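for the writeup, i need someone to sanity check this before i put it in the appendix. the sequnce is what the collaborator sent (i think, or maybe the updated version? ugh). structure was predicted straight from it, no edits. if anything looks off just tell me and ill rerun, i have time this weekend
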Amino acid sequence: MDSPSFKLPPLLAGIQSPADLKKLPAEQLPALADEVRKVLINTLSTTGGHLAPNLGVVELSIALHRVFDTPRDKILFDVSHQCYVHKMFTGRAAALNTIRQFGGISGFCKRSESEHDAFGAGHAGTALSAGVGMAAARDLMGDDFNVISVVGDGAFTCGTTLEGLNNISTTTRKFILILNDNEWSIDKNVGALSRYFSSLQETDTYAWLRDRAKKFIERLAGRDIKEQASKLLTAARGLITPLSFFQELGLTYYGPIDGHNVNRLEKVLRIAARSQEPVILHIITQKGKGYEPAAANPTKFHGVGCYEVSDGSTAASPTITYSETFGRCVTALAADDPAITAITAAMPGGTRLDIFRESFPRRFFDVGIAEEHAAIFACGQASLGLKPYLAVYSTFMQRCVDMIQHDAALQSLPVRFCMDRAGLSPDDGPTHHGLFDISMMRCIPNLIMMQPKDEAELCHMLATMQGINHCPSAIRYPRGCGEGVELPAEPQPLPIGKAEVLAAEGQVALFALGNMNSVAAQVRAELAAQGIDCAHINARFIKPLDTECLLQFAAQCKLIVTLEDHSIAGGFGSAVQEALNTACCGTPVLRIGWGDTFIEHGSLQKLRAKHGLTPEAICTSIRNRLQSLS
């Protein structure tokens, strides 16, 4: 994957594996860190990617690979959006310019990509539980390798992280947890745990006492005196600091530690590697370190597209994005209805609920990386008459399926579930594609689900949600720019469960969902030029399906074609087939969507071309099906 134009600086070029990194003299490590940061800044300016998180873990990554021996030792990165430096030290530096590009390396850890990627990830809250599972497996196998889970402080708001933390000491005696504390997940961290970690950074009294007591203990000769002094220090720690939280969980705490002092990190990691009890290393890092625009705006540079290296500027979107449309519209609705609240799980900027927050801070709730809690929290508000709009990326809303069924639908609570990034999330790949929400949710009774064809219709659907007070409702909309249509001054509610007929005549009926309507329009034009007329229906509603409209076109057409930016397994097309089967209608259905596989990362155009979702490929599929029917 190496590009002729991609030349690595000298120190980094000499590192083909962690063994090469271990050979470098300690005095050269600061220069290596500088090289790594320059490569990250310059390369990601053209590929896009998670710049700020990786700039913050350069020294940590150096220290980890100098102390531990992957792939024997297992290093797990929570979310793993901060794994670019790890990839550079494990034989993939020359391929960094392909990161997140079609056919290139992934922007996350991926087991199939390298033996050094111990565990694949893309969602928060997996590294600790997976690491404890590995440690337990190691113990059962009688082995002694190290397991290290690197977890950001934001992920400590995630329920699975806390569940895993609760089980470490009762499961294994040898485990290393690194708390990478930079006060950010994507946006500024929130909640009591965030305040707790901040308090740990501020305990100068404990740090002074710990260091003085340690030196005193080391000078003592008798083991009994050492043990008594150690116990005294432990007792003092509980009095002076809130470290009893980790102590009670059975973890030995080291920190806070400067996460940009590679020599100090190495020393502490070597102590942890020899430990026969679970330890937690609390390191303090700066997200975006070494690049002023990223350090000043870590939210923007958490995951960024192309930018100018000189000042970090990025090109403006050619049209308003769906996310911004959502933020503006919900805020406008809230101006007229004080019962509206807005909830997100650590994504105020990504979902553009930051717009709502500016206008109605008391009615805005960021619960941290805790999607399940967010869903039940919204149900609690709805049970008392509020109108909560919960905005979460589709790929993370998967975690809320139980809550949508058990807490919202079963109790007829009118929570508004708003799924950003539904459909393909191209460059991020399979961990972030929103291709399964329809199949997971449409089987839930007492739920209304819809998808707009453009940003104007998104406003109308949000207004529709506003009037749904007898059951939960869900809306899915894609990542990125809209179709460029003008937003309505006064959005109007749509009739529930009614499709929009855009073209009524044809031997083929194209039932398109959401952003696939623009593709359907191109298909219709191309087939018309070939003498095949098509009706075009904007489905709008996934549930309830407009069966009256469907049966009308099934009666007059030779073929029903469904188009969706979703997996065809259990998706919108499956709902159409089920409805026709229930009505004993034998009109054939051709389902167009993503196949029953995990879709890789790459540009939208290349992925659609590979998987047969371009207008040309769809036209070919329709012609072939018509030919088989004649």
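The two ends are 47 Å apart (CA to CA). Residues 1-5, 201-210, 216-223, 235-240 have pLDDT under 50 and may be disordered.
thx in advance!!
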